[in-house]
């Protein structure tokens, strides 16, 4: 009887400390299944994973490079944050002023969320191609980035990305981390999410995301499909978010015929 109670307690503790979202199983996926997901044009992530409400519009987070004239570009690429709407608009205006002069930007509307300020424009190229784009600035009260995309880094070791300044609650932390994944903060370059789960351990929340990426080969070469484990940690005391990634396995993808 005591043994049964102990087993039940262990199961309950495991359930309370780890919350998994609906998704594909992390283990036992065949090569054929992975290839099917990798080349599925419509699959991005499992049901329940964060999705940007403005998708599929393009968005761009202004940064230390975009606000500088081309001949005075900053040697760092760090996304900017502020709680001041006027400062956010100033940075967006500088980004547009320092962009390709063959593109015209027509203002459409502005908005804001708890996560960011947003200014929507219509981009018109010199050949009259039109594309809506949303320029965004992080709100410091939600997220403040310190990650420099130009600095040498690798995802094998923990990389410091920024500070989450919102409510310290499991679902809120997971929302922030999945949001940062969707906007490519972790340089995940369109990798597809197979599953996402969050664990609480002491002073940390850790989100484990299993993802799938495709490296497209040149003519006469195969694509390479890679399965990754991604670990994003949030420190409750410092509010720092760190990221590391490990490669689980690789398989050959589609073959690209030569000339």
Number of strands: 11
Outline type:
globular
- Percentage beta strand: 35-45%
- Summarize the helix and strand pattern as letters: HEHEHEEEEEHEEEE
Q: How confident overall, as mean pLDDT?
A: 88
Account of the 3D structure:
With 259 residues, this protein is of the alpha+beta class. It has four helices and eleven strands; from the N terminus they run αβαβαβββββαββββ. The protein has helices at 2-17, 31-38, 85-97, 170-182; strands at residues 18-20, 58-61, 104-112, 116-124, 130-138, 143-145, 159-164, 192-201, 204-215, 221-235, 240-256. The strands form two sheets. The protein has a seven-stranded antiparallel beta sheet. It has a four-stranded mixed beta sheet with strand order 2-5-4-3. It is globular and about 50 Å long. The relative contact order is 0.15.
